[in-house]
Amino acid sequence: LARAAEARIGQFNAQDLVNTAWAYAKLGHPDPDLFRAIARSLAAQRLDGVSAPHIAKTAWAFAKAGGGAHPPLFAALAKSATERAADFVAADLANLAWAFANAGHVEDAPLFAALARAAEARLSDFTAEELDNADWAFSRAGQRQLVRKLRQRRKRAAGAAAAADAGGGAVDVSGVGRIIVAGGGIGGAAVAVALQSRGFDVLVLEADASLDSRKQGYGLTIQRQDAMQAMGINLAQDDAPSTSHYTFSADGAILGFFGEAFGDKSKVRRESDASGRFIHIPRQKLRARVVEQLRPGTIRWGSKLRSFECRRGAGVAVTLADGTTLDAALLVGSDGIFSTVRRQLAMPGDRLHYVGLVVVLGILDGSVPLTQRRIFETVDGTTRLYAMPFTPSSTMWQLSFPCSEEAARTLTKDAAALKAELLSRCRGWHDPIPALLADTPLDGMSGYPVYDREVLEPAVLRPGAGAGAGKPGLAGRPAPQDRVTLIGDAAHPMTPFKAQGANQALSDAVLLAEALVQGVREHGALAGLDAALPLFERRMLSRSARVVVGSREKAKELHSSLALQPGRKVQRDTGVDMPRVVRALRAGGIGSGSATDPRGLDAVVAEVVDRTSASASHAAELDAIFGKRPAAPPADQAPPKRAKRAKRAQCSALGAPGAPPLDADGAHFEWRETMRALLETAGEAGLRRKRLRKLVLRLYLRHLSRQPEAAREEVCWWRAHPAELQALFRKHLRAAKGVGLVRTQGKMVRAG
Predict the structure, then answer these.
(1) What sign results for the dihedral spanned by CA atoms 116, 121, 126, 128?
(2) DSSP secondary structure string, 216-257?
(3) What does the alpha-carbon distance between residue 220 and residue 239 come to, in Å, rounded to a whole number?
(4) Which residue has the higher pLDDT, 477 or 528?
């Protein structure tokens, strides 16, 4: 692939080049020739159209790759960043400074001066993590004045948070007035809880007649619990736990796995609300838990927003579907992907984007062995099924596949036709998928076409809100704003394939409450809203933009041949070579069917992981001895005859014994483990017998040379008697074959 890319490098645009460099660096395969070609091509192009995140990604990729500084490329990247620094948001500035400092390019004074000026103008926009990254980078670049201000900003933020915690809502927000939230789903209820906990007066408008008036979706995965903890909500009692996650091919072969069941840190982690583990919970149960935190009467059931009218700097007039008019100091649109609030904002070019997929969701009462405390997904390169515990006694599944928009709309209106399509697509897939789909009742499943929207820019959501929006103007007051904002799917709808929609909405809720409190603290009740809204929107959209794009890319990946790549996701704390483990699992016939093993699937897989890890030291030794193997190594390249004669002469001079050593095992050399490690490293193709013999014997002699003097003398004897050395190899090969560790076919040897 690298050679093909290098040959066509002239056809790549700047975006292609950045993505290619990032991918190779991320995978740990920094091909030197390809990176040189990318560097030359990027340096020769105009980089005005390359975004700040992609400049940072490029700097990171080339720093990760090493192999030369590429001065022309970094000069071009720095020039582009310097010229546009004033246009970048705080997150971009922190990432750029960190990336260039990480790459060792801290001597570029114009670049860091421009970044520092822009960062100083946006000090209030930096999150805690961005402050840390910027502090580190600008310290290395010698920008001491900015570093002092960054640290002061961090200290003030920490002090304000501590004061708020200690004072239990010490900031008086009673003068703000009523905040109306359109939409009482998870995001709308959550923002009401976050605002009420800080003293704000909140009213939620919800079109449903009651909490239970209609079905409210399926299962959710809460990936970060900090937002829930900030609202005082504990979900541990509602969790349907899982401790492992598997990816299977359609025939049931394991393509990857991760989770608490594996990894040194995870094995000793207690399953509790403080464990950091993901929480699996029905959507309606989560919604109920959030609503329980609200004061009685906060939600106005059966009330749907029809329209609103902004009075810049003086609130919003809200009109309901029944004609009722309400006044609000602030309107928060949390009314989903088809948001009425967003539609009335009439932002230019704002339209839904069909992702090209249809998603079908189903719930089956009762659990199946493969989903007992376990998540699994199965892929075939086009269709993907994901299953997880819905409750401790039921299973939820999600199946998705490519479909035209028109066909998706038609199909999702006919439950029987939809189910027939699923059964047809998954006929022949591993158990229990066919039965899981067949046994799900029609009223227990539903489908929908998948939409998202293009990433929303802060200046589009709030026209005229540049970098200085929200900061004091000439009169010392923030500029008046239209007091309408969006959160959750109304602001940043995304595909479900990174399980981030609800997580982002919960984070938005807490962020908005914190921003409003900060604004009121610094500017007073009403001006505080004008100061807070632009800052909140920049932070929210900066954070969510990466997730929107990542979710769309994930949707493409999971429904393509990329999904079939073994070990796509590797758990950091396992310390295993995932591709090697996957090969060993396949060779041992371990897959989805092993869920019925009395020991349990996780235990069966863990045994293979431990066995493979035991041979990892041999593989590491091979890498140290031979380095990275070429793509097509010479099959049987023997040492020159003169080198052989020299080694034998050296042994004769040392007085090699005239009889074979008594300890033919060479001080406990692991013959079988060495053979297996070599063959597993070679993969399905295996090794020629002659090549395997040379590698094993080379390791054997190296092993002897590290032993005490008596064992080292054996090296000379074996080198002087190659026929006997080969006979020793054949003996151990037969023994390994006899216990099933290896198998032979003609001249080839493969792992058993």
Answers:
(1) positive
(2) ---EEEE---HHHHHTT---GGG-----EEEEEETTSBEEEE
(3) 10
(4) 528
- Residue-level length of the chain: 752
Task: Determine the Cα–Cα distance for residues 683 and 306; give it in Å rounded to an integer.
Answer: 63
* 407's tokens: 């066909």
Please say whether the beta carbons of 473 and 523 come within 8 A. no
Q: How far apart are CA 128 and CA 91, in angstroms?
A: 11
- Token digits for 372? 């007992």
Tokens 């927003």 belong to 305
Residue 698 pLDDT more than 70?
Answer: yes
- pLDDT tens per residue, range 120-156: 888 877 877 788 888 888 888 888 899 888 888 877 7
Instruction: Determine the Cα angle at 478 with ends 473 and 479, to 5°.
Output: 85
Distance CA 457, CA 356 (A): 24
**CA–CA dist 492, 510 (Å, integer):** 16
Tracing tokens 């295996």 back to the chain, one arrives at 686
C-alpha 103/C-alpha 37 separation (Å) is 19
pLDDT (0 to 100) of residue 647: 47
- Rounded-to-integer distance, Cα 261 and Cα 240, Å: 16
- Cβ neighbour number for residue 606 with a 10 Å cutoff: 17
**Beta-sheet strands, E only, within 263-304:** 279-282, 299-301
Q: Is the pLDDT of residue 473 over 60?
A: no
pLDDT at 664 over 50: no
Return d(Cα 210, Cα 190) in angstroms, integer: 17
Tokens of 150: 């960054």
CA 215 to chain centre: 30
Residue-wise over 395-411: b if at least 16 C-beta within 10 A, else e?
A: bbbbbbbbbeeeebeeb
Binned at pLDDT 50, 70 and 90, residue 446 comes out as: very high
Residue 432: is the preceding peptide bond cis (ω within 30°)? yes
Band (pLDDT 50/70/90 cuts) for residue 174 is confident
The mean pLDDT value for 245-256 works out to: 94
d(CA 297, CA 196): 12
Phi, psi of 399 (to 5 degrees): -120, 135
Q: Phi and psi dihedrals of 632, rounded to 5?
A: -135, 80
For the stretch 366-397, pLDDT in tens is 878 888 888 999 999 999 999 988 887 888 99
CA atoms 463, 468, 471, 473: torsion sign? negative
Quickly list DSSP for 137-186. Answer: HHHHTT-HHHHHHHHHHHHHHHHHHHHHHHHTS-S--TTS-EEEEE--SH
Instruction: Report residue 115 CA to chain centroid gap.
Output: 28
Residue with tokens 């990318």: 38
Amino acid at site 724: E
Return all residues near 702 (Cβ < 8 A) that are at least 6 apart: 625
Tokens for 32, please give them. 């030197």
- For the range 259-268, what are the long-range contacts, defined as Cβ-Cβ under 8 Å and sequence gap of 24 or more? 259/375, 259/571, 261/602, 261/606, 262/571, 262/574, 262/602, 262/605, 262/606, 262/609, 263/571, 263/572, 263/573, 263/574, 263/575, 264/573, 264/574, 264/575, 265/573, 266/571, 266/573
With tokens 């500084």, the residue in question is 69
Q: Are 35 and 65 in contact (CB under 8 A)?
A: yes
The average pLDDT across 177-193 equals: 94
CB 674 within 8 A of CB 696: yes
Structure tokens at 610: 């431990």
Residue for token pair 């047809």: 424
Annotate 413-481 with three-state secondary structure: CCHHHHHHHHHHHCCCCCCCHHHHHHHCCHHHEEEEEEEEECCCCHHHHCCCCCCCCCCECCCCCECCC
CB atoms within 10 A of CB 444: 16
Please say if the pLDDT value at position 104 is more than 60: yes
pLDDT of residue 572: 53
Residue found under tokens 């002659």:
690
Q: Is 525 exposed, middle or buried (0-12, 13-18, 19+ CB in 10 A)?
A: middle
Q: How far is CA 547 from CA 107, 113, 168, 534, in A?
A: 33, 30, 33, 20
Tell me the average pLDDT across 586-608.
89
